[in-house]
Write a structure and sequence with these properties.
eight-stranded mixed beta sheet, five-stranded mixed beta sheet, 13 strands, binds S-adenosylmethionine
């Protein structure tokens, strides 16, 4: 239905009727950057699990309009809701973590200021930087055909991240871990998975990844004390921006999320918008 078409997350209020009108940045992008024409199609996502294919019938930089000619359920989000508590690292490297983490299926990013973080205090991450990060994960979600955009929470200190993560199953990636393999750690954490009311197992999993300098011994002791499982990612020392997405991908693989997607032929009905 929509392989290869340009995809855009749009406010849900614009969708649900037979016609759609886009203005502002998206109208500019479609008309001036992508230079799409009348008759071309785009896919608009409501971010709540449905996507609308639209045939354009007017394309101007001020406004783009079209008719909805198909509605589908978006590709399924992972049942395992991964929250990646990623130590703050220098600017573009942190952006790499969010872009790659979005592609592999992370549901939520929490930037963490650790004792050995090389960046200024987390509280200097202003609204402008958060907005840029949200744009990066939105574009990554559009590119990898996800139906939802991962959340980015404001930066927190390690102690606060630990408090949030320890509320459910959580792993801390520790390069000097000598006992627990990732697989053993994941099995222990995923065994705590919950079964939701339709019998499908859903689960949340917190993943903590340290800064260039690694977690301090105090941070590791506090994590273990809080019941967080420390795991090794093997004998090689990964850069922090490698460790986050890799750990998330391996967790999703172990949870059985990395399976082929089969789009059912029947278009999904447009969601009830009351
Ligand atoms: N300063 C540490 C050292 O030299 O041993 C390296 C820290 S590493 C660059 C950044 C983060 O990635 C670590 O805090 C850890 O969370 C994760 N990491 C990297 N390699 C890992 C491995 N082999 N096992 C577990 N975690 C790893």
């Amino acid at each position: 239905m929509s392989a290869g078409l340009h995809r855009f997350f749009v406010p849900r209020g614009l969708l649900g009727g037979p016609r759609v009108a886009l203005t502002g940045e998206q109208a500019h992008q479609i008309s001036r950057v992508l230079r799409l024409k009348i008759g071309d199609r785009v896919v608009l996502l409501d971010g709540a699990g449905h996507e609308y294919r639209v045939r354009l019938d007017d394309v101007r930089s001020s406004a783009v309009t079209g008719d909805v000619d198909d509605v589908r359920a978006s590709r399924p989000e992972p049942r395992l809701q991964v929250t990646l508590y990623q130590a703050l690292v220098l600017r573009d490297r942190f952006e790499t973590v969010m872009q790659k983490g979005t592609e592999v299926g992370v549901s939520r990013f929490v930037p963490v200021w650790c004792e050995r973080s090389a960046v200024p205090r987390g509280d200097q991450i202003d609204a402008k930087r958060l907005e840029r990060w949200r744009r990066i994960v939105t574009e990554a979600a559009e590119q990898c055909e996800r139906g939802r955009v991962p959340e980015i929470l404001p930066p927190v200190r390690f102690t606060e991240a630990l408090e949030q993560a320890a509320g459910g199953p959580a792993l801390l990636a520790l390069e000097r871990e000598t006992e627990r393999s990732l697989q053993a750690g994941l099995r222990a954490a995923l065994d705590q998975r919950l079964t939701d009311n339709d019998g499908k197992s859903t689960a949340s999993l917190g993943l903590l990844v340290g800064p260039e300098g690694g977690f301090s011994s105090t941070e590791v002791a506090a994590a273990r004390e809080a019941g967080v499982i420390t795991v090794s990612l093997g004998p090689r020392i990964l850069r922090t921006e490698t460790a986050g997405p890799v750990l998330a991908a391996l967790a999703l693989y172990e949870a059985g999320d990395m399976v082929p997607f089969v789009q059912h032929p029947a278009a999904g009905a447009a969601p009830d918008r009351t």
